[in-house]
Amino acid sequence: MSYEGWILLTAALVGISCGVMGVFLILRRMAMMADAISHTVLLGIVTAYLITRELSGWHMLVGAIIAGLLTAVFVQWLHSLGVQQDASIGVVFTTLFAIGVIMIATKTGNVHLDVQHALMGEITFVPWQTMEIPLLGEVPQATFILSIVLAIVLVMILAFYKEWKITTFDAALAASLGIPVMLMHYVFMTLVSITTVASFDAVGAIMVVAMLITPAAAAYLWTDKLSIMLVLSAVFGVLSAIGGYYIASWIDTSISGSMAFATGILFLISFIGSPRHGFISRYIRPVTLAKE
Amino acid sequence: MSVLKVEDLSASYRKNKVLSDVNFNVKPGSLTGIIGPNGAGKSTLLKVMLELHPSLSGKVSFFDSTLAKTKRRVGYVPQRGSVDWDFPTNALDVVLMGLYGKIGWFKWPSKQDKELALEALAQMGMADYADRQISQLSGGQQQRVFLARALVQDADLYFMDEPLVGVDAATETAIMTTLKRLKSAGKTVMVVHHDLLTVEDYFDHVMLLNRTIVEYGKTDEVFTKDNVQKTYGGSLRWMKEA
Amino acid sequence: MLDIFLSPNAQWVLFSTLILGTAAGMVGCLSYWKRQSLMSDALSHAALPGVVIAFSILGYKNLPFMIFGAAVSAFIGAWLIQLIRSSSRVKEDAAMGLILSVFFGLGIMLLTVVSRKGGGNQAGLDSFIFGQAASMVRTDVYTMMAVAIVIIAVVIIGFKEWKLFLFDPDFAKGLGLSSRLMDGLYLAMLVLVIVIGIQAVGVILMAALLIIPPVSAHYWTMSFKRMLVLSAIFGGGSGLLGTLISTMGKGWPTGPFIVIASASIFLVSVLAGTQRGLLVRALQLQLQRKQHRLESRPIPRQPVKEGK
Predict the structure, then answer these.
(1) What pLDDT is attached to residue C76?
(2) Cα-based distances in Å from B192 to B43, B163, B210
(3) Is domain C2-296 classified as CATH 1.10.3470.10?
(4) What is the model's pTM?
(5) Does residue B61 sit in helix, strand or coil?
(6) Which of A57, A105, A232, C257 is most exposed, with the fewest beta carbons within 10 Å of its own?
């Protein structure tokens, strides 16, 4: 495949996996957890690097899962101690992120890993770091890991679709039916962590938040069906990833930044124009259905 | 056989003890109203029994067994305000959720399950709203969907947290008819209730609760002026004639 | 260590992070009770495009003008979050995450363009992402301090109004306290403290300065007044401590060290806090259990029951 082809494929994979995870993130009102995990995953990556002295994708994946789960556990713990939910998120992620930045600044000496790269991502490097896959030949490592992660995400979402739905909608009922709500929560956080770290190379820590939340929020304005919302969100994710790439090459600027910006434009269009929940429809067509 | 037996149950919420030494034994086929002032621990009692909130001490047994072993036989209707009604789903889907425990892991709801759910909706007079997005239902309709979801669970023991709050008269009648039908089918129902005026019409048993059980028994025996005043601390004006 | 105190510039920098920490601790306390802790994170990220645009208009680094740019863009961010929340079904957390990441993305886009065109000048802009207190010059310090002192004064002067406004806004309205005015003032202070802080701490970690001190303070007291004071002290203390440590290594960023200092105070508070600290809690639970046993079991020594 061509150089540009790999980049577009990688971007599309990021769009789909983030889009799908994002739907549950915003419905569970955990958008800011995504922000938190995207930051703390940096600590996981740095630690993995300091232990193994190797910048391998798999080590990073493990480091990221541990960091993501730790974030979720700490936030839950602080919350159980009576700290407001959003304050606990704020305390945990800023602290873990600060530790990560300090470790980079003091220990690694900026040799292989620089903060800039982890935060902004650099999708243009993706096609150069390849690995040998049987049958497929040379495949960029990031693209390969992303496809595996996407497969995991899709299998987990589809296999436990009704459990995700019920724990998201009504956790109390789910618990009373014997569904392990807490376990599902941590599994979900693990999925968010691996999605985040797999998208790192392409879009970086902060822009991954845009990919997670914005397409899902836009999809939320177009439909009242969860399954359609999932599909729409994935489509929006792909559109903004690819759109962002072309915007970036058009004005010659950061690709990840442009992707985040493109998700914003898509949301803006949905926010203004969506026939169901858009800004205009709210004022043009007064509510007739709500009360009967 | 006892449906539900609670011994020495105590629980605290934050720093305050909200339930202490609660003891009772529920008869099968009874329809009980749980009555008490604000902060008496009514909702907490339900949550502690269902292990959704930790207890300080005590023992709760369901059908002479533990909750874990009899989960299928216990149904719970949370307060309507506890969920996000903007969730992208329709009424039928919410009712189907009541079957998720029965359907089991990895399996998707079958056609039969959907028919069961539709039937439950029809029983609550909501058949025409099956495809309606839940945020476009009125408060009363939302509550009926919740009731339909409980019906479809086909449990033997139901807990309902304030199902009659903020609903229209038609819904109130529909819900009470359903509860009475459940009772005559041999099911046991416990309802957190707040309207003292309707207690005698609606329930055959009453539990007067204020941090501990003041009185529990048949409505005509227990629901007296003295007992109610004891529960509400005497501040309540007794509105019943004679 | 000693030469830090000898260099007058370093002293000024130290003093400015102290004041900044104090102001952030106080405003953070207001955010905590408005239950908007993460709003500060969203707004500090949303400030980035404004900083870059202000820089590219002038073509050189001028702190007051960049603060102005940051403030404008943070205000737009705040307004958009409010608009999305109030006129669509998207909830507040999603709206914040959305504005935060999209604005940051836009900021990075612009930053890349500016630094490509401006060449060597970008070093100054990078410090806005992670914070580099040492890169501040005397006039920067003056600007920061002036703004911080105004903020501290506004919180102190309006103390009882803030308390009322946070605790019971409807009642406050009844007393003739315009909640629109208070909301506006609060948002203005929040934005200002964020924008003066990003030069020293960076957009990513600025939120920590507002979030962690009040949470720590809450472990020590139940009174709003004492919480405000403690939060200010914790904030100022971590600003001072973090800056000191960061000057020890070459090229060490200030922001992360301030956050670590703040987190250490937090850890101590969680453990030893006199109001809700873990130690106190453990004692309380013991006491509650004991009391419960005494009350409910008049007969001493019963056969041991299994489980709970």
Answers:
(1) 95
(2) 7, 8, 13
(3) yes
(4) 0.84
(5) strand
(6) A57
